[in-house]
């Protein structure tokens, strides 16, 4: 039931790009992305609904391929403030409104 | 808006003791979730409530864990007796659920309660 995220960790230099993937074995109707900074609570970034739409938030965007039950988070021209652990959360058909998170991808952006 | 409020922020206790974690959701939110976070297992959903009613407690690890939501503004997660393997950060989150498959279940998390059981 838990979605699988890859990679587990990424180290970037400021200005570089990164892609974080999230896949599920279940039919999904939404994918959520959250970011958690060290010692803090997870914070909502964006939600993608069934329909394959792509969303953006500043230089962070995401896509949802419902046929493959996969979502990708794109971080462009990364900034130091992007550092943290990124979690995808999925709601699947028949799973009610329960949101189940992957184990996270730790992103470190260095100067 | 004060956000989701959790207490205590830190709790250190000895094995066998009872632990009660508290949560006040955002006013107007009708769903409340308890998650446990550890390095090994990540963010695990323990239980969630909708309109104060427990909907799914399949993530509650054992009978030692119990959760209540007596009203729309308060929930507790109790562990009795506590064990060292219960050490984790426990998060409470709330949301406004607008219907099945609405895709609008955006969670606001509290700051978490860090539990250490010795």
Model description:
The complex is a heterodimer of chains A (111) and B (118). Chain A has 111 residues and is mainly β. In chain A, 0% of the residues lie in helices and 56% in strands. Chain A contains no helices and 11 strands. Chain A has strands at residues 4-6, 9-13, 18-23, 28-36, 43-49, 55-57, 60-65, 70-75, 84-92, 100-101, 105-110. Helix content of chain B is 0%, strand content 53%. Chain B is built from no helices and 11 strands. Chain B has strands at residues 5-7, 10-13, 19-24, 31-38, 42-50, 53-56, 65-71, 74-79, 88-95, 108-109, 113-117. In chain B, strands 2, 4, 5, 6, 9, 10 and 11 form a 7-stranded mixed sheet that branches. Chain B has a 4-stranded antiparallel sheet with strand order 1-3-8-7, with no helix packed on it. Chain B is globular, with a radius of gyration of 14 Å. The model of chain B has no long low-confidence stretch (mean pLDDT 92). The chains are: A mainly beta (111), B mainly beta (118).
In short:
Chain A is mainly beta and about 110 residues long.
Number of DSSP strand runs of chain A: 11
Distance between the termini of chain B: 36 Å
Radius of gyration of chain A: 13 Å
Number of strands of chain B: 11
- The oligomeric state is heterodimer
Strand content of chain B: over 45%
Number of contiguous helices of chain B: 0
Largest sheet of chain A: 6 strands, mixed
**Unreliable sequence segments of chain B:** none
List unreliable stretches of 5+ residues of chain A: none
Rg of chain B over CA atoms, rounded to whole Å, is: 14 Å
Broad structural category of chain A: mainly beta
Question: Helix count of chain A?
Answer: 0
Helical residue percent band of chain B: under 10%
Average pLDDT taken over every residue of chain B: 92
- What is the H/E order of chain A? EEEEEEEEEEE
Helix content of chain A: under 10%
Could you outline the blueprint of secondary structure elements for this entry?
The complex is a heterodimer of chains A (111) and B (118).
Chain A: E1 4-6, E2 9-13, E3 18-23, E4 28-36, E5 43-49, E6 55-57, E7 60-65, E8 70-75, E9 84-92, E10 100-101, E11 105-110
Chain B: E1 5-7, E2 10-13, E3 19-24, E4 31-38, E5 42-50, E6 53-56, E7 65-71, E8 74-79, E9 88-95, E10 108-109, E11 113-117
Parallel strand pairs in B: 2-11
Antiparallel strand pairs in B: 1-3, 3-8, 4-5, 4-9, 5-6, 7-8, 9-10, 9-11
């Amino acid at each position: 039931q838990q979605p699988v995220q890859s990679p587990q960790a990424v180290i970037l230099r400021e200005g570089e790009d990164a892609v974080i993937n999230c896949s599920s074995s279940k039919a999904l109707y939404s994918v959520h992305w959250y970011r958690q900074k060290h010692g803090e609570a997870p914070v909502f970034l964006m939600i993608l609904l069934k329909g394959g739409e792509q969303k953006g938030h500043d230089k962070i965007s995401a896509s949802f391929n419902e046929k493959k039950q996969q979502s990708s988070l794109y971080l462009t021209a990364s900034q130091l403030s992007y550092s943290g652990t990124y979690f995808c959360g999925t709601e699947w058909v028949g799973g009610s409104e329960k949101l189940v998170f992957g184990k996270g991808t730790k992103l470190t952006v260095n100067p | 808006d004060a956000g989701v409020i959790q207490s205590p922020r830190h709790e250190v206790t000895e094995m066998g003791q009872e632990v009660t974690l508290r949560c006040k959701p955002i006013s107007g939110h009708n769903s409340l979730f308890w998650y446990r976070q550890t390095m090994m297992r990540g963010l695990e959903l323990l239980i969630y409530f909708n309109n104060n009613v427990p909907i799914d407690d399949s993530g509650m690890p054992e009978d030692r864990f119990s959760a209540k939501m007596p009203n729309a503004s308060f929930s507790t997660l109790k562990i009795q007796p506590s064990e060292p393997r219960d050490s984790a950060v426990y998060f409470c989150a709330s949301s406004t659920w607008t219907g099945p498959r609405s895709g609008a279940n955006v969670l606001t998390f509290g700051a978490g309660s860090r539990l250490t059981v010795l």
